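Kindly draft a polypeptide, keeping tokens residue-aligned:

***
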Amino acid sequence: MPLVAGVDSSTQSCKIVIRDADTGALVREGRAAHPDGTEVDPQAWWSALQKAISAAGGLDDVAAMAVAAQQHGMVCLDAEGNVVRPALLWNDTRSADDAEQLVSELGGGDANAGAKAWAQAIGTVPVASFTVTKLRWLARNEPDSVARTAAVCLPHDWLTWRLSGSSDLNTLTTDRSDASGTGYWSPSSGEYRPDLLSRAFGSTPLLPRVLAPRESAGTTPSGAQLGPGAGDNAGAALGVGAKAGDIIVSIGTSGTVFGVSVTPTADPSGAVAGFADCTGNFLPLVCTLNAARVLDATATMLGVDLATLATLALSAPAGADGLTVVPYLEGERTPNRPNATGAIHGWRLGNSTPAHLARAAVEGLLCGLADGLDALVAQGVKVERVLLIGGGAKSEAVRQIAPSVLGVPVAVPTPGEYVADGAARQAAWLVNGGEQPPAWEIGPTHTYEAATTPAVRERYAQVRDLTASVRVP
């Protein structure tokens, strides 16, 4: 019974699961918190990983492990492998102007032409989340940091490298899924675009080698094999065993809607990111900045816990009697409004209750994700089944209201650490071999159905674009 470990190094915490490589049965697990903020010293991730490993009883009996982590984070290393500056995370929006400039520049000053050119080049139009835009920001604002930077990698790349015990920058590795979120790697060609990196950064630092789906990234000092790893969403897709036709709606720190596709996508509107998955297929994805934290913030405003928030939301009528929340609490990525703020519309005496606000917040959160589902369909992505996962999916209000807003039945698997599970499944693929990852059961799912409420989507669409894109102080 070989054991494998999977790590989820997310924005908020580090989770590790240790599973039986053959059956997927959970043996033990651990976790540790990450610091808040959009700019973090990577050493905090390493410290949290060590705490999580300790909490899980160590790795001495583990045959292989893999790391899935938050995408896009900019980790700059000097020639000795030291971190040059704190990493800028995916949810850091300071490079919004740089994203606009990069898009326009590639189109010769025409933003529309530039968006089309970027989509053709890498399958995606860069926004402030992407590594390439953060590198442009660094080049403009911190020339000393640029001069010291010998290599650029992503959070999961850096953690895998640290786990290998290597200090040689030439041993840095990444995988297709995470590389596809940088802005300088093409999923369709499977190659880096150093011209785009140089355009942003002014030079071409060393980049991690992109591994094939079940290619080893080396071993740990104790002899455990290291998988290539994954971006968090690709890890989740592997964790739930997603196949072509499956759409995953994940409500975590960010909200994501993505599906497995056998062909790449290239959306010049920028709504759909044409990512790769970690099996050799593709993972067209729509991401919103505002997801589970919308529930947290609303609960805080009302002075209740999340369970009570759900009860309140379900006690109010669909549509909250006209109250609509546009939940751009941290700006927004899709649509691309990094400087936007949230807003409440349709406030009247008749809907001035905690229940109405709770319902409107849940519906607003889900409307943003429903827009993402529409965008995937517009790109030709098949929708045969919708799976709802993530911390926000634990809310009974989210579960019951989701099918009415999304317009389709929603299957909710047994709650689990699906990103870490996907990394563990990848590690088991290394151990077991074979053309496909091992077929693990994810447990029972419960399907929620409800009458569609088009009026909620229509009202949201009417007020969404009234939200002022003002710069947050």
User: Anything to note?
Assistant: The longest helix spans residues 354-378. DSSP finds 15 helices and 23 strands in the chain.
